[in-house]
């Protein structure tokens, strides 16, 4: 079954933070010169009192401004991915539905998928619509860890702290329309899931009280493995979709990937033999938006004319330390078509 992206909308928090903020706290760090942690010029941080649901509502606002308050009336499926849930145990999907005043039959808080959760949720929507009478679906991605985890006093001096940014996106998916999803490829690599680890000094479980502040744990060895995996995985899934839809990678009009760092961006477009102008890039303005990176970069590329009606766009990326990779091809038909 074919589903279509009706439209997509983004939200970036008002707090635009320059690299100088982190430079003032920087300390000697063995990873400071690593290509994975070369800082973007800017990133946006959530406000102290801003919740994931607030971000979702603000992302959806763009859809309603363009298409009217009734644009979500037929939403039967709501899928959300939140990088840092506001509450343990409970996802935010139910509260998002309440805030938006919609009553979908299905509400799923998708926790896995990471930086390619948007593509994973596209596939879930496709399967759910194929087996039901659902009319449309709303996919909401929220990245809210940068302004909460990476500005902590013990974390902001590390090389990794300046890379993430915050933001949210909302995409309305319909059964038919002018922007069909032509093909999707998803691959799981569970053997790498354990390479994503949490560190705190002194050691404790993340929910236990203590003086140390938690962060993602990186080592030179682990980074080398992640670089090798990412460089291989993303072209592989993108080329698999190209083969399936009969479009050589060189004929793609745009490649939209997650935005982890400059080295990955360069290597991915080189592997697909695409020029830089066909690979939209939001890294220097937004940093690594994790799961928001692909949909936000697509939204920006559409708004800036880098993606136009009739273009074949490849969405591709990998998640965490390489436990998941996914790609999807879309023929863009215009907003609300």
From TrEMBL:
<dbReference type="GO" id="GO:0033818">
    <property type="term" value="F:beta-ketoacyl-acyl-carrier-protein synthase III activity"/>
</dbReference>
<dbReference type="GO" id="GO:0004315">
    <property type="term" value="F:3-oxoacyl-[acyl-carrier-protein] synthase activity"/>
</dbReference>
<dbReference type="InterPro" id="IPR016039">
    <property type="entry name" value="Thiolase-like"/>
</dbReference>
<dbReference type="InterPro" id="IPR013747">
    <property type="entry name" value="ACP_syn_III_C"/>
</dbReference>
<dbReference type="InterPro" id="IPR013751">
    <property type="entry name" value="ACP_syn_III_N"/>
</dbReference>
<dbReference type="Pfam" id="PF08545">
    <property type="entry name" value="ACP_syn_III"/>
</dbReference>
<feature type="domain" description="Beta-ketoacyl-[acyl-carrier-protein] synthase III N-terminal">
    <location>
        <begin position="112"/>
        <end position="185"/>
    </location>
</feature>
<dbReference type="GO" id="GO:0044550">
    <property type="term" value="P:secondary metabolite biosynthetic process"/>
</dbReference>
<dbReference type="Pfam" id="PF08541">
    <property type="entry name" value="ACP_syn_III_C"/>
</dbReference>
<keyword id="KW-0808">Transferase</keyword>
<dbReference type="GO" id="GO:0006633">
    <property type="term" value="P:fatty acid biosynthetic process"/>
</dbReference>
<feature type="domain" description="Beta-ketoacyl-[acyl-carrier-protein] synthase III C-terminal">
    <location>
        <begin position="242"/>
        <end position="332"/>
    </location>
</feature>
<keyword id="KW-0012">Acyltransferase</keyword>
<protein>
    <submittedName>
        <fullName>3-oxoacyl-ACP synthase</fullName>
        <ecNumber>2.3.1.180</ecNumber>
    </submittedName>
</protein>
């Amino acid at each position: 079954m074919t589903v279509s992206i009706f439209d997509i909308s983004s939200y970036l928090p008002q707090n635009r933070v320059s690299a100088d903020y982190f430079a003032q706290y920087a300390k000697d760090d063995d990873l400071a010169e690593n290509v994975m942690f070369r800082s973007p010029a800017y990133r946006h941080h959530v406000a102290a009192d801003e919740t994931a649901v607030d971000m979702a509502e603000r992302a959806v606002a763009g859809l309603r401004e363009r298409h009217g308050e009734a644009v979500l009336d037929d939403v039967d499926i709501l899928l959300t991915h939140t990088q840092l849930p506001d509450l343990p145990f409970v996802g935010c999907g139910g509260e998002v539905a309440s805030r938006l005043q919609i009553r979908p039959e299905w509400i799923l808080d998708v926790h896995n998928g990471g930086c390619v959760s948007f593509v994973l949720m596209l596939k879930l929507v496709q399967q759910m619509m194929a087996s039901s009478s659902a009319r449309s679906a709303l996919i909401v991605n929220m990245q809210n860890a940068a302004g909460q985890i990476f500005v902590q006093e013990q974390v902001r001096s590390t090389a990794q702290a300046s890379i993430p940014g915050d933001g949210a996106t909302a995409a309305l998916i319909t059964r038919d329309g002018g922007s069909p999803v032509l093909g999707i490829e998803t691959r799981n690599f569970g053997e790498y899931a354990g390479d994503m680890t949490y560190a705190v000094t002194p050691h404790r479980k993340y929910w236990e009280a203590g003086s140390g502040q938690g962060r993602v744990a990186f080592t030179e060895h682990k980074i080398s493995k992640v670089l090798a995996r990412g460089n291989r995985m993303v072209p592989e899934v993108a080329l698999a979709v190209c083969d399936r839809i009969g479009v050589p990678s060189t004929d793609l009009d745009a490649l939209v990937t997650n935005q982890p760092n400059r080295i990955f961006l360069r290597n991915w477009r080189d592997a697909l033999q695409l020029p830089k102008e066909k690979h939209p890039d939001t890294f220097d303005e937004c940093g690594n938006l994790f799961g928001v990176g692909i949909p936000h970069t697509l939204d920006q590329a559409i708004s800036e004319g880098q993606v136009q009606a009739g273009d074949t766009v490849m969405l591709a990326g990998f998640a965490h330390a390489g436990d998941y990779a996914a790609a999807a091809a879309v023929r863009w038909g215009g907003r609300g078509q």
